[in-house]
Design the sequence.
């Protein structure tokens, strides 16, 4: 199979193929498309119902958007406040400039702890810095504990969604993975039985492994607290039972005050899973004697975020609270699923976040992976104008590419340069129009349609017909109209 | 991405410098920052509109929608109501936080009181009984601040069955109402509060008893659940599979 390599999704933006190529395996796989569409339909319907029930939804969005933007504009002050409060409460705060820095900090902590095993709460940030393969290579066994993450880890699969990462798999596929990896030959494909199998598989690990890694949904500057939002209780297990806890999250995750959660928490669950509230939220402040891990580390990750912050139009990308409503509403994601985005952040938010995190050196096809329909902006609980950022990034990609010598003869840029020339002088435009109208006649059939064009034009006519040119150009019609109407009247012709 | 790891502290300054440069044009001093924060738009609903009875009804309805079992009781009948719940659970070994009122510890069961119980002992418990700090009716959420009557976090996590005692006076309608109760520091440290229901609330004259900003919070909205397989909601993954609530009508 020539596409065998393509069927293994690559979520490292530096290695992933361009979006149109990466989307092919899903587009060619009806089962996968069905799985994705089903999951999205269910979440969308639940979300719509619960959002409609909130009469102050738009006010909540406006408040959340303003709080997030205010935080970003004053990020340095709030991060330093968080650091001071968290440290005073017994936490240790580390700063990681990039992915390599963060991985090393975490490994150093694990080495100090003598940790050979570590349990993990689902964190997209750890996927972003590719923590698991790094720790495994360093001899640390990593155990994911979120149900979807276990499915992916045991099945050696990649996440395709940020809230329900295994939504591309159906119950039969999950059963196969569990039966094979847990040695449960008689396991049924009932989700209840599959969930129970995961519970049993993890229970002993929760009770015995003394080191855990989590992400964070928010940091509170005012109190130094950290919060994790979850459903299953695996988060609470990891936050409560181990001796040592390491929390990794991006620098943008901070909120000014504890009270700001009254906005975020009302928006997040409704947007993410279509629930009034997710089963569990945990908030903890440093170390509490007698309750939970007695050694607590926070790793604050930059990894390109401060460069996004520097660009006022793009800064809003960092308002994101990772609810995934944008991908659930996206007509493109619905067809391609998450793997096509070549990063742990799929969908519309991934299309703007990944190229920026890569500082516009990779993932250049992503800003084009959108129809600009605006559904993502409409559902975004923190009002990120994703289409606006997409357009901004597109212009940056185009500006990079058109200056690229290797693309000098690229048909698109060649065509655009010629067009630029033609539109600059009226005589040149009219002359080329005249020539073009003669030339196009050879391709126009008797029915008035153009069914096939040669060369680059063929890419258009491959999938659609083009209407033939009208007998008269607009310029010709306008000139004729001026001649016919009375020069004195100046009134509109009927 | 650099191949070499910067020395500790070096990254901190680098990141803060980058952030400082990125936000130079909107730089504020401390008082400007406080003013800008106060000026943020907050036009969403802060206080609910429901009367006390309707608020409690909504709480019960929302809890039931999460598959939580809810029964109502009164301060006087509470110990008997707890005993009845324990009896019908079919379970025998129950964990309890050290600060749980002694009259809640019904006779005839094996109680494991959490005076720093080992995890393995908590794991042996089939159920747990605790108080709560607050109930948010709008989302059917129970808030724990892990006071002595609510117990350590692990206590309400390992046992498969959780009976939570929530007083009507603790129920607010909206999430912002809970957060405004946390705004002022509490008059007493939570560990010194009298949690038995027979005594009046901390601030008898105060309609909204102040809770203070908590160091630990767990919010519980129904039993643990997942929808990771085909978006089918499955009750009970790692946290308690069964959530029972006794709503105590302590308001006139």
Sequence:
């Amino acid at each position: 199979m020539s596409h065998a390599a393509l069927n293994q999704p690559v979520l490292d933006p530096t290695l992933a193929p361009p979006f149109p190529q990466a989307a092919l395996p899903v587009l060619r796989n009806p089962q996968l498309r069905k799985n994705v569409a089903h999951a999205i339909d269910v979440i969308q319907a639940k979300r719509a119902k619960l959002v409609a029930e909130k009469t102050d939804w738009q006010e909540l969005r406006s408040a959340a958007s303003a709080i997030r933007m205010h935080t970003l504009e004053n990020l340095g002050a709030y991060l330093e406040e968080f650091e001071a409060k968290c440290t005073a409460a017994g936490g240790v705060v580390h700063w990681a400039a990039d992915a390599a820095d963060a991985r090393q900090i975490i490994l150093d902590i694990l080495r100090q702890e003598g940790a050979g095993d570590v349990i993990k709460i689902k964190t997209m940030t750890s996927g972003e810095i590719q923590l698991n393969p790094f720790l495994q290579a360093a001899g640390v066994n990593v155990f994911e504990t979120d149900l979807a993450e276990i499915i992916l880890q045991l099945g050696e699969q990649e996440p395709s969604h940020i809230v329900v990462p295994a939504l591309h798999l159906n119950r039969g596929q999950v059963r196969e993975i569990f039966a094979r990896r847990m040695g449960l030959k008689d396991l049924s494909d009932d989700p209840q039985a599959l969930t129970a199998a995961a519970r049993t598989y993890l229970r002993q690990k929760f009770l015995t492994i003394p080191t855990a890694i989590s992400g964070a949904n928010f940091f509170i500057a005012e109190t130094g607290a950290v919060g994790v939002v979850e459903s299953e209780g695996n988060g609470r297990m990891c936050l409560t039972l181990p001796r040592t806890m390491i929390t990794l999250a991006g620098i943008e995750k901070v909120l000014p005050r504890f009270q700001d959660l009254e906005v975020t928490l009302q928006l997040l669950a409704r947007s993410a899973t279509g629930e009034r509230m997710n089963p569990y939220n945990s908030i903890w402040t440093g170390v509490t004697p007698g309750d939970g891990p007695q050694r607590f580390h926070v790793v604050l990750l930059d990894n390109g975020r401060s460069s996004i912050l520097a660009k006022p139009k793009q800064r809003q990308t960092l308002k994101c609270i990772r609810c995934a409503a944008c991908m659930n509403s996206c007509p493109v994601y619905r067809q391609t699923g998450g793997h096509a985005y070549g990063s742990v952040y799929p969908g519309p938010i991934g299309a703007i976040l990944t190229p920026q995190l890569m500082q516009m050196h990779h993932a250049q096809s992503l800003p084009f992976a959108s129809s600009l329909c605006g559904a993502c902006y409409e559902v975004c609980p923190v009002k990120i104008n994703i289409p606006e950022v997409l357009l901004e990034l597109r212009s940056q990609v185009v500006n990079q590419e058109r200056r690229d010598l290797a693309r000098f003869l690229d048909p698109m840029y060649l065509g655009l340069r010629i067009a630029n020339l033609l539109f600059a002088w009226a005589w040149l435009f009219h002359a080329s129009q005249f020539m073009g109208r003669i030339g196009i006649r050879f391709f126009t059939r008797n029915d008035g349609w153009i069914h096939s064009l040669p060369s680059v034009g063929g890419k258009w006519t491959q999938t659609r017909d083009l209407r033939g040119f009208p007998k008269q150009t607009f310029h010709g019609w306008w000139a004729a109209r001026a001649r016919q109407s009375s020069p004195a009247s100046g009134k509109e012709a009927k | 991405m650099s191949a070499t790891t910067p020395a500790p502290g070096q990254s901190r300054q680098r990141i803060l410098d980058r952030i400082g440069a990125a936000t130079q044009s909107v730089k504020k001093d401390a008082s400007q920052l406080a003013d800008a924060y106060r000026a943020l738009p907050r036009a969403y609903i802060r206080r609910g509109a429901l009367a006390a009875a309707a608020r409690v009804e909504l709480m019960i309805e929302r809890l039931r929608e999460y598959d939580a079992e809810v029964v109502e009781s009164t301060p006087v009948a509470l110990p008997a109501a707890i005993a009845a719940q324990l009896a019908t659970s079919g379970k025998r070994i129950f964990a309890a936080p050290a600060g749980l009122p002694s009259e809640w510890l019904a006779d005839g069961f094996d109680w494991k009181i959490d005076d720093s119980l080992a995890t393995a002992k908590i794991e042996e418990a089939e159920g747990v009984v605790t108080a709560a700090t607050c109930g948010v009716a709008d989302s059917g959420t129970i808030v724990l601040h892990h006071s002595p009557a609510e117990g350590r976090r692990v206590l309400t996590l390992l046992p498969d069955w959780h009976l939570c005692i929530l007083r009507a006076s603790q129920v607010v309608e909206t999430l912002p109402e809970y957060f405004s109760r946390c705004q002022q520091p509490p008059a007493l440290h939570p560990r010194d509060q009298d949690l038995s229901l027979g005594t009046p609330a901390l601030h008898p004259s105060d309609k909204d008893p102040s809770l203070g900003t908590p160091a630990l919070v767990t919010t519980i909205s129904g039993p643990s659940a997942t929808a990771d397989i085909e978006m089918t909601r499955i009750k009970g993954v790692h946290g308690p599979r069964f959530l029972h609530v006794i709503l105590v009508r302590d308001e006139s």
